[in-house]
Amino acid sequence: MQRYDRTLKLFGEENFKKFQNTKLILLGVGGVGSFALDSLYNTGITDITIVDFDTYEESNMNRQLGSHGNIGKVKVDSLKEKYPEVTAINEKITPEWIDKFDFSQYDLILDAIDDIKPKVHLIQRYYNKVITTSGSAKRLDPSKIEYKSIWETYNDPFIRKIRYELKQRGFKKKFKVVFSSENPNCLEKGSFEAVTGSFGFMMASLTVKKILNSKK
Q1: Helices 157-168 and 116-126 meet at what angle, rounded to 10?
Q2: H or E stretch including 198?
Q3: Of 84, 116, 121, 195, which one is least surrounded by beta carbons within 10 A?
């Protein structure tokens, strides 16, 4: 167990058993999801299903783990090589796919989707076990990242659209998101790995805390 020596020292054997008995699904393995995956897998949470339909492009190299040396390759297949215990699903995440997929087998759903419709659909259906993030692009300061009620978020046009769509569907539940209070620094989707990666690390931290607090 030398591989997990530092994890065991921090969490203890009983909590580590919880990690090994946890089953996660991670939707989206880009600039946010890839860092969440790396952090959780290295901690000993290895029963993770990753879902993404994209291939690596050169423009991904500034923020996505796994992109270097893998341009043109399917993201989930490349990450499966790096994290061999994961289950890789190469599928586009749509509301229809969400309706057909069996999420009941997972303890938590990690949402790093950057499309509005499937994100809204997922939150509405599975809010009680979803950990979700808002937009991580256009920002420079990771210290501005918070975990906050979606109804109290601000300075984020992306999450504003999510809020609007949820309201239109009559969704009024208490629900928190990982978001940044920092004002966007550009109009286009410029990105900085120190922020996108920190979003992923925040997602991983919240996941670990929820596992530790679970009765499983």
Answers
A1: 50
A2: helix 193-213
A3: 84
Is 57 strand, coil or helix?
coil
Of 8, 15, 47, whose CA–CA distance to 216 is shortest?
Answer: 15
The Cα 116–Cα 127 span in angstroms is 15
State which residues form the domain around 200.
2-213
| Three-state secondary structure of 2-47 | HHHHHHHHHHCHHHHHHHHCCCEEEECCCCCHHHHHHHHHHHCCCC
Specify whether the CB–CB gap between 22 and 46 falls below 8 A: no
Length of the chain (residues)? 216
Contact 109, 126 (CB under 8 A): yes
Structural domain tally of the chain?
A: 1
CA distances from 155 to 87, 117, 135, 163 (A): 36, 20, 10, 13
By DSSP bridging, strand 176-180 and strand 145-149 are: antiparallel
pLDDT values of the chain reduced to their tens digit, one per residue, 216 residues = 689 999 999 999 999 999 999 999 999 999 999 999 999 999 999 999 999 999 988 988 888 888 999 999 999 999 999 999 999 999 999 999 999 999 999 999 999 998 999 999 999 999 999 999 998 888 999 999 999 999 999 999 999 999 999 999 999 999 999 999 999 998 888 999 999 999 999 999 999 999 999 876
Phi-psi region at 47: left, alpha or beta (left = phi > 0; alpha = psi -120 to 50): beta
Q: Residue 137 and residue 140: Cα distance in Å, rounded?
A: 9
